[in-house]
Amino acid sequence: MTTMTMPASRSRTDTWLLVLMLWHGLLAVAGLVAVYVAFTGINGGLRFAVAGVLLVLALLSATTVPLIHRRDHRGRSISLVVNYLGFLTCTALLLDMIGAFTGIDDLAQRFGRGLPFLLISFVGYFIRSFGDRFEQFPQRQQSFQRVGNIIMLAGLLLFVLAIINFSGIPALASEILQPVRMALLLGLILFGAMFWAMWRQSVAEAMGVNNARSETLSGYLFLSPNFLGFLLFFAGPLLLSLYTSFTNWDAFGTRDWVGLENYARLLH
What we know:
It contains ten helices and no strands. By secondary structure, it is mainly α. The chain has two domains: about 210 residues, no CATH class; about 45 residues, no CATH class. The relative contact order is 0.10.
C-alpha cells in the first residue's frame, strides 16, 4: 500500500509544480502587458509607481519559473510572496468596488461576535506550526498539521458566519456579477489556490524546504499584516510627503519638480 501511495503522491506533487511554473510564466507575461497599459493609461507620476510595482512582480514571477524547475527552495519563497500579494490586491480591489469598506462601521459592530472564533483559528495555526518540530516523525507531524488545518478552517468559517449580514447577500451577488469584479474574483481564487498549492507540505518537501525554512516562512506570514500596514499607512505617506516637498504641488494643480527650492524659501 505504501509503495503504491508514494509514487502517486509524487506524481501529484510534480503536476502541481508544473501548474505553478505555467502560472508564473503567465503572470510574467501578463505583468509586462500591464506595465505597458499602466504607462499608456495612467497620467502623472502615479504611472511610474504602478508600472514599477508591476514590473517587479513580473520579474519575480519570471525568476520563479526556472527556480521551481530546479526545485530550488528560493522559488517557493518568491512564489508565496507573489501569490500572497496578488491575493491581497484582488481582495482589496474587489471589496472596494462592491462598497465593503463603506459599511465598515456595521461590520465593526458585528466583529466582536466573531472574535472568539478568530482566536480558535490562531490556535489551529499554532498547532499546525508546532507539528513542524516533529520532522523526524512524519506521521506525528502530519497528524498535528491535519488537526491544525481543521481547527483553522472551522474557526474561519464560524467567524464569517458570525459577522456576515445574510440579508445583504442578494445585493452583494448583483454587485459582483459584473465583468471587472468577476475578473477580480477569479484572480482572488487563482492567487489563493496557487498560494495553497505552493504551501502544501508535499510541495515544500519537493522544493527542498527544511524545518527551519518552513518555520521562518510561517513567521513572515504571521508578521506580514503588520509589515504591510507599516508600508501602506506609515512609510508610504512619509515617502509621498517627502516627494511632494520637492515639487510645487498645491493639491489642485500640476506637480512640477522644483528640487530644494521649497526648502530654500523656508530657510530664508
